[in-house]
Specification:
Layout (H helix, E strand, L loop, with lengths): L5 E5 L4 H9 L3 E5 L10 H14 L17 H17 L6 E4 L5 H13 L4 E7 L4 H7 L31 H4 L7 E5 L1 H15 L5 H4 L4
Parallel strand pairs: 1-2, 3-4, 4-5
Helix pairs in contact: 3-4
Length: 215
Amino acid sequence: MVSNPGSCMPSDQATEKSDLLLKLGAVVDRVPPAPIIDPMHFVNRARSLAADHTTDPKRPGRGYFADQFENQANWKAHFEGTGPEIFEQCGGKLDAFVAGAGTGGTIAGVARFLKPKIPNLRVVLADPQGSALFNRIKYGVMFDTVEKEGTRRRSQVDTIVEGIGINRVTANFEAGRELINDAIKVSDEEALAMARWLAEKDGIFVGSSSSVNCE
């Protein structure tokens, strides 16, 4: 027997995400935003729930914690899938690849596939405000000025952009970090304006985590 899949997410994420998962039959646990060292951080909560499932004799099967931030099957999936797809659809002719990073799997996997094939390709990180990855690429440090004490508005990355931006180093991001040539910082205002422009001008309906990649 297979139990319904479960998902843990911060409670400040858009409710449309959890609503869709619920309609698909998943069990959704929305938890308050917290630092990664907190046992109730959504990653740690998911790990704990999977372990509890496994050790509960009254529940069928076992729990599995996907660990999307550290499981290197993440970047490898993009190395084997997304990277080759981009290369084929562009006929191998690319000048740059721009992407945001949450787990870091997409930008790392695609970079690792494309760079050996297109040595002059520039890989650029598009980082939302509040995330420290911009400074990780530019200066080798994990800090953003809006995160300094007394200035933060949210418990996590201080941006309305969801799904990308982070203030810790992950195994997936580090798998491709040295292949990233540059980073740009994108404000919330810029991300929202581009999302509206893409919808109105190109008929492409995407959220802010996609629009940060466009200029």
